[in-house]
Amino acid sequence: MSSINGIALSSKKSPLTHWVVVCEEWRALVDRYSRVLGGEEHIFNFTERPHLGVFSAAAWRAGFIAIEEFRYEKHSDDGKYRYGRCDLWLATDNLRRQDYIEAKQKKIHLGGKNAEAFATRTLESALSAVKLTRGDRTDVNSVGLAFFNIWCRNPQTVTSEQILDFIDEMKGYRKTLEYDLMSWTFPDEAREKSNPTKALGAVILAKRLPSR
């Protein structure tokens, strides 16, 4: 067995091509956590906040600057501005690229019948949140980010072919979700006997709101 990792962009002109280096670091950190914990625990055992923390760390390692959970004025549904929190802000050193990000997390069962519905609702929820973050501003690059914990009843019996088929299935959701970027990691340790959980791997989907 070997770890299964990858990145897929919607096209060569994807508005999130600059995230490729971040996703490479994210996968490395997720895999490292599994390795250091000997397969007994994984980042994809947890909820949104640990995922977001690792993604932020990956951005720093990729040469970006980042800050999580900061106070930010948001545009509420009633049209008024109120202070809330933005999940994550990423920027390059020259500040030419700045991303305001709202994230959501969900579990998806490998081979489950509702995977596309879960993926759709989760990414739509992240996009709805980031619309409030953007408000009426036209200078904000806003991104919805969805983290998915992939699980199954017995990870030790899952083959590489099954994982690759699942990845291809999620890639196919692009026609429905119109996401800009997908990245995934399925570490070796998750399929070893040392894994006492049902966790198998992690997938992220990201979509930038269209510019005004």
Oligomer: single chain
Strand order of the largest sheet: 1-6-7-5-4-3-2
Rounded to an integer, what's the Rg over CA atoms? 17 Å
Report the major sheet: 7 strands, mixed
Strand content: 25-35%
Percent range of helical residues: 25-40%
Mean pLDDT: 91
Order of H and E elements: EHHEEEHEHHEE
Model description:
This protein has 212 residues and is of the alpha+beta class. The chain is 32% helix and 32% strand. It has helices spanning 20-36, 48-61, 115-134, 160-172, 174-177, and strands at 4-9, 65-75, 81-91, 98-109, 141-151, 181-186, 199-208. It has a seven-stranded mixed β-sheet with strand order 1-6-7-5-4-3-2, sandwiched between helices. A hairpin with a 6-residue loop joins strand 3 and strand 4 (98-109). The termini are far apart. The mean pLDDT is 91.
Give the topology, please.
Elements lengths: L3 E6 L10 H17 L11 H14 L3 E11 L5 E11 L6 E12 L5 H20 L6 E11 L8 H13 L1 H4 L3 E6 L12 E10 L4
Parallel strand pairs: 4-5
Antiparallel strand pairs: 1-6, 2-3, 3-4, 5-7, 6-7
Helix pairs in contact: 1-2
